Amino acid sequence: MTPGTPGIQVLEPGLQTTVQDLGRHGRQDLGVSPAGAADPAALILGNRLVGNPIDAAGLEVTLVGPALRFDVDAWVAVTGADLGAVLDRHPLPPGTAVPVRAGQVLRFRGGTRGCRAYVCVAGGIDVPPVLGSRSTDLVGRLGGPDGQGRPLRAGDRLAVGAGGFRGPDTVVRQARWRFVPDRFVARVVVGPHRDHFSAGALETFFGSEYTVTPASDRTGLRLSGPAVPRAAGEILSEGQALGAVQIPPDGQPIVLLAGRATVGGYPKLGVVITPDVALLGQARPGDTIRFAPIDPAEAVAVYRDWWRQLMSGEVVVERDAAVRSPLDGTFYSRPYRGAAPFVRPGDPVEPGTVVGVVEVMQTFFDVRAGFAGTAGNLRVADGERVAAGQVLMTMVPAGASGPAGPRPPGSGSAPGWWPGRPPGPPAGPGPRGG
Amino acid sequence: MTAGRSGRAGEDPGGVRVAPAGDQGVYVYFPQRIDPEVSRRVRRLAQALRQPEARRRGIREAVPAYASVYVIFDPLQTDHRQVARYCRRLLAGDAGGQEPPARRFRIPVVYGGRYGPDLEVVARHTGLTPDQVVRLHAGTDYFVYFTGFSPGFPFLGGMSPRLAVPRRVTPRTRVPAGSVGIAGRQTGIYPVDSPGGWNLIGRTPVALFHPDRDPPALLAAGDYVRFEPVSPDVYREIEAAAAAGAYQLRPEPVGSGGRAVHDAAGDAATGDAAPGGAAAGNAAGRGREEESR
Fold first, then answer.
1. For chain A, which terminal residue's Cβ has fewer other Cβ atoms within 10 angstroms, N or C?
2. Do A241 and B68 touch (CB under 8 A)?
């Protein structure tokens, strides 16, 4: 981007943060890797949360996250693994879209489960597309911040595109999705090189647990476990399917991920189905994986169901996050002068919890939360005149859970990350918040 | 997903086998050998699978290799069985339309020196002089079986078996783009800077891949390549012209008269028709430079 264009500044790059969309498709015959998000489900849902087309570019964060300063107001969703995203100092739960103000800094404190988080910004990360995609191909050296296929570096400035969700900041958008499974079980369609493997080899493969080694990267998961015996010799080099389970001569399987090269010469015992490849994008070194066979027709049915769920209205929910004044009067945040406030930012709130009072003609009316969640910042000052319907406080509604199962632990409680200011023109840089 | 009447494991009389690849692909396998005739069948099928009709049927991509086509489909629209059936129908009808006429690219290469630091190694290993290595390597047409692995990388057939040298024991951490190398019985050109274990005998200033070009890859399956020794001066001239966007390597048609050969043994004998040595190929190299724009 041209210097000075407002967008996102990379303060620290993290371990390996790359720009990814859903991939550079259609040129594998020329040797162009599709690249793209290692966990496409997380990118798709992040984009849906901020109102982008599902194939808009976001940032793929690996284990150790970057520090990103926003120069513009933006809606941002962090999806995928819970790598401890914090906006300024306020935790940002995974799968939740929030408004970010110019000057705020998004950081990652680290996590214990899952490998990759996705930062999706309304309008998308607008680096120059290469062959129709913004994805970073680290091996073929295409795409990314300058088109040269490299990860982010400190000092990079990323433009943010136009469009996307620009809704009121009194709503919260959440994804009901389980991004990281408790146990990794990947379903595999056996083949294409079935003949290279004995029945015993298949038994070993499907009956054993494999550990993800630190040699794994975006090109593939290198596993360690009981060796899978195979026929001697290589195959003629051929196209490489996403999710292909290659067995090199040492019998230790390699599962190919989004960043793979287009051609390879190890026999493939099978190919992991797409929905489970997305999950494997969340496997980190030390995690264990089991494999289960699935037949091709069933695999297609599973894919269709997965896609329908990913696209359905049920997985992205928008909720009013505001607590409003029931009538015209004067607002007080504490029961009497000098007392502790009813709630502080970050406090858990149940339906019916009193968060303040409004005084009308010497009579005090309780203001109660209508739903469970976490208290955010007050939007009005103590003793301020308020009108009926005016927003007094915003909340983060309690964690969504849905068809894809319970959300990862820790994501349900979200202290007061909510930016503590009413909408307005962006102020100068500098930390701020609740 | 055995396709109906064609027998067990999807095997065809024509030696074609279709095998599943996860939830959104199949592999179509031809007889597993490196052979221009098999390659022709591969190219025809891949080409047919790129037509609008295939797209309408939910086929997204066809990735050809030596003796296979990896076919990617949209599982929302179709499935393994339908795609396998369609591929067989294309093969039975030998569809795919007219094959484009064969082309030959003359690729300028500086052999030896810092451009090809392993030329001496290859000479020692093969018992040839460096000059003989260059003559042999540059004196034959190579057949592009397919491109893949990295952007624009050609899998070339036709190197003289006399030039076969094993990979380096210790791979280099960085091989510059354009390096021409030998590994085993294969020769190739590195399209991008990358680590690599091939023996480097020369380098070309010609970019094999540029994302802004259409098509982005210089070489396509079915093309022929001939290496033309040029001097470092010519290399630098071409490099400068390419940087200024004023260099384009144009192919020449491979006519029925001067039919290109991929048979290395046959062609190696005619090697002395090629320009002599690393520094002597100036004129030949210059002749192919074409100014454009």
1. N
2. no
The pLDDT tens digits of the residues spanning A140-193 come to 999 999 999 999 999 999 999 988 777 777 888 889 999 999 999 999 999 999
Residue B216 to residue A300, Cβ atoms within 8 A: no
CB pairs under 8 A between A and B: 158
| C-alpha to C-alpha distance for B159 and B36, rounded to whole angstroms | 14
Give the pLDDT of residue A319: 79
B4-92 belongs to CATH 3.30.1360.40: yes
Domains of chain A, each with CATH number or no CATH: 7-175 (2.60.120), 184-311 (2.40.100.10), 321-397 (2.40.50.100)
B103-290: which CATH architecture? Beta Barrel (2.40)
Q: Is B25 left (phi over 0), alpha (psi -120 to 50) or beta?
A: beta
| N residues, chain B | 293
Q: How far apart are CA B181 and CA B198, in angstroms?
A: 5
State the Cα–Cα distance between residues B103 and A111, nearest whole angstrom: 55
Grade residue A433 by pLDDT with cuts at 50, 70 and 90. Answer: very low
CA-based nearest residue to B198, from B181, B177, B175? B181
Instruction: State the residue for tokens 């409004």.
Output: A358
Average pLDDT of the segment spanning B260-268: 37
Write the residue in B33, B75, B192 that is nearest to A303 by C-beta: B75
- B80 vs A32: CB contact, 8 Å cut-off? no
In chain B, where are the structural domains located? 4-92, 103-290
What is the pLDDT averaged over residues B33-47? Answer: 93
Contacts for A1 with CB less than 8 Å, ≥ 6 apart: A7, A126, A127, A157, A158, A159
Q: What share of chain A has pLDDT > 70, as a percent?
A: 90
Strand ranges in A202-243 using DSSP code E only, listed in sequence order? 210-212, 220-224, 238-239
Q: Measure the CA–CA gap between A352 and A348, rounded to whole angstroms.
A: 12
CA distance B140 to B272: 10
Q: Find out whether B185 and B156 touch, Cβ atoms under 8 Å.
A: no
- Pick A304's closest partner by Cβ from B19, B76, B221: B76
pLDDT at A232: 81
Phi, psi of B283 (to 5 degrees): -60, -45
**Quick check: B279 pLDDT over 70?**
no
Written as one letter, the residue type at B93 is G
Segment B16-40 shows an average pLDDT of: 95
pLDDT given for residue A251 in this prediction? 95
Helix (H, G, I), strand (E, B) or coil at A268: strand
Distance of alpha carbon A156 from alpha carbon A429, whole angstroms: 17
Cα A313 from Cα B62, distance rounded (Å): 33
Residue A327 is given by DSSP the state S
Task: Measure CA of the first residue to CA of the last residue in chain A; give whole Å.
Answer: 31
Using a CB-CB distance cutoff of 8 angstroms, which residues of chain A are in contact with residue B146? 29, 263
Per the CB < 8 Å rule, is B60 touching A147? no
| Record: contact B63-A139, CB cut-off 8 A | no
- Long-range pairs for B16-20 at CB < 8 Å and ≥24 separation? B16/B88, B16/B91, B18/B84, B18/B87, B18/B88, B19/A191, B19/A192, B19/A193, B19/A194, B20/A189, B20/A191, B20/A192, B20/A271, B20/A296, B20/B80
Q: Where is pLDDT greater, at B80 or A403?
A: B80
